[in-house]
TrEMBL record, chain A:
<keyword id="KW-0808">Transferase</keyword>
<dbReference type="GO" id="GO:0004364">
    <property type="term" value="F:glutathione transferase activity"/>
</dbReference>
<comment type="similarity">
    <text>Belongs to the GST superfamily. Phi family.</text>
</comment>
<dbReference type="InterPro" id="IPR036282">
    <property type="entry name" value="Glutathione-S-Trfase_C_sf"/>
</dbReference>
<feature type="domain" description="GST C-terminal">
    <location>
        <begin position="94"/>
        <end position="219"/>
    </location>
</feature>
<dbReference type="GO" id="GO:0006749">
    <property type="term" value="P:glutathione metabolic process"/>
</dbReference>
<feature type="domain" description="GST N-terminal">
    <location>
        <begin position="2"/>
        <end position="83"/>
    </location>
</feature>
<protein>
    <recommendedName>
        <fullName>glutathione transferase</fullName>
        <ecNumber>2.5.1.18</ecNumber>
    </recommendedName>
</protein>
<dbReference type="GO" id="GO:0005737">
    <property type="term" value="C:cytoplasm"/>
</dbReference>
TrEMBL record, chain B:
<dbReference type="GO" id="GO:0009635">
    <property type="term" value="P:response to herbicide"/>
</dbReference>
<keyword id="KW-0808">Transferase</keyword>
<feature type="domain" description="GST N-terminal">
    <location>
        <begin position="2"/>
        <end position="83"/>
    </location>
</feature>
<dbReference type="InterPro" id="IPR040079">
    <property type="entry name" value="Glutathione_S-Trfase"/>
</dbReference>
<dbReference type="GO" id="GO:0004364">
    <property type="term" value="F:glutathione transferase activity"/>
</dbReference>
<dbReference type="GO" id="GO:0043295">
    <property type="term" value="F:glutathione binding"/>
</dbReference>
<dbReference type="GO" id="GO:0006749">
    <property type="term" value="P:glutathione metabolic process"/>
</dbReference>
<dbReference type="GO" id="GO:0005737">
    <property type="term" value="C:cytoplasm"/>
</dbReference>
<protein>
    <recommendedName>
        <fullName>glutathione transferase</fullName>
        <ecNumber>2.5.1.18</ecNumber>
    </recommendedName>
</protein>
Length: 220, 217
């Protein structure tokens, strides 16, 4: 019985971030498609769920939540006993473990996300939707992302995953954009020894593979 | 409880975010100044605290933290016995709303407002440069769309996460404080509920104290 509905398409990086979390936590859900080509995300009904007119939105019997990272935290808080129990730092880790996850989740949101999203748009979505690519934007964002990945490479030389010894939301948050970027330019990640090791490991997780299957599933 | 150390500057937006939390919970802290013009933030001592070479960083015993929103949560959790509850972690639905509007600040509000503050205030004042009006103009359009959403929300809810003041509201303070000393402050006039919310949160003693350490022009 699924009281959980996620609104959006698995091809959206932000939606796939939430799906990865739901699969990690073994929480059943229903995916309600949002037809962005027809502007459904700007319809009055959808704006009641997500006032910025973006996907994903998440609804259960208790509340409606938006912003993918907030949704992931809610899922972890609501289902502490289900599935992966170390996504937010683990039950015995306490405040320090939780804080480390928060720190690296912020690093993803503030430092990794902007240049990686710009590159995902330029390298994947622009050609897909017939927009012209901007070589200057590609170059600038690759340079910014390279600096971020250099920091990650040093961190991942000392720590198995970003927040510590366990895979957490901080790593998971990188899967959507990472997946697209590695398919377009594997060098960015794989030329850095520790980032490459980390990427191979996190992208091999069964929960992420289920998300990729959903992304590759034929429409209709 | 021994106090924490914050490495940063009182005029810095992200440092101010953390100082606000410390003031709200009434914690003891020491602010250690980082000399940005001399590049201290990119030197090895500070990179050991914040590998991205940014301010603020927090030190609490052996714990070292970066990212102001993560530091803010740490401070609020550490001092939750103070009676100031800006995270509502005891309530699933309320804490969800705090996270939603904190993410909205991070992902919608901040990307729209920070280029305006950066170009119109920081570039000329700190770097002696010329503001890029095209960036300011396109950011203002983005900010107006965000403020429309906030206006609708704050027409139904006294604060962003609900009828309680939270970290979600607090997190908006630093860049908004600086927008208010640029020519673009008037954009808030078109959004009366947002303006009323701003006047309410800035009347808090913690806000007045931290504001006094920030730039006035």
């Amino acid at each position: 019985m699924a009281s959980v509905t996620v609104y959006g398409t698995p091809l959206s990086p932000a939606v796939s971030r939430v799906l990865a979390c739901l699969f990690e936590k073994d929480v059943d859900f229903k995916l309600a498609p949002v037809d962005m080509a027809k502007g459904q995300h700007k319809s009055p009904d959808f704006l009641k769920l997500q006032p910025f007119g973006q996907v994903p939105a998440f609804q259960d019997e208790l509340t409606t939540v938006f912003e993918s990272r907030a949704i992931c935290k809610y899922i972890c808080n609501k289902y502490p006993e289900k599935g992966n129990q170390t996504l937010m730092g683990g039950r015995d880790g306490g405040l320090l473990a939780q804080t480390s996850v928060d720190q690296w989740l912020e690093a993803e949101g503030q430092s990794f996300n902007p240049p990686s999203s710009a590159l995902v748009f330029q390298l994947a979505f622009a050609p897909m939707f017939g927009f012209k690519q901007d070589p200057a934007a590609i170059e600038q964002n690759e340079a910014k992302l390279a600096n971020v990945l250099d920091v990650y490479d040093r961190r991942l030389g000392e720590s198995k995953f970003l927040a510590g010894d366990d895979f957490t939301l901080a790593d998971l948050a990188h899967l959507p954009n990472g997946h697209i970027l590695v398919s377009k330019n594997e060098d960015l990640f794989m030329s850095r020894k520790n980032v490459g090791r980390w990427w191979v490991e996190i992208s091999a997780r069964p929960a992420w593979k289920k998300v990729v299957e959903m992304q590759n599933a034929p429409l209709g | 409880m021994a106090g924490v150390k914050i490495y940063g500057k009182p005029i810095s937006t992200c440092t101010a975010r953390v100082l606000l939390c410390l003031e709200e919970v009434g914690a003891e802290y020491q602010l250690v100044s980082i000399n940005m013009p001399s590049g201290e933030h990119k030197g090895p001592a500070h990179l050991a605290r914040n590998p991205f070479g940014q301010i603020p960083a927090l030190e609490d015993g052996d714990l070292v933290l970066f990212e102001s929103r993560a530091i803010s949560k740490y401070v609020l959790r550490k001092y939750k016995e103070s009676g100031t509850d800006l995270l509502k972690e005891g309530n699933l639905a309320e804490s969800a709303m705090v996270e939603v509007w904190l993410e909205a600040e991070s992902q919608q509000y901040n990307p729209a407002i920070s280029p305006i503050v950066w170009q119109s205030l920081i570039v000329p004042k700190m770097y002696g440069g010329t503001p890029d009006q095209a960036i300011i103009d396109s950011s203002l359009e983005k900010l107006k769309k965000v403020l429309e959403v906030y206006e609708a929300r704050l027409s139904k809810s006294k604060y962003l996460a609900g009828n309680f003041f939270s970290l979600a509201d607090l997190s908006h303070f630093p860049f908004t404080r600086y927008l208010m000393i640029t020519p673009y402050a008037s954009v808030f006039e078109s959004y009366p509920h947002v303006k009323a919310w701003w006047e309410d949160i800035t009347s808090r003693p913690a806000f007045k104290k931290v504001s006094a350490g920030m730039l006035d022009s």
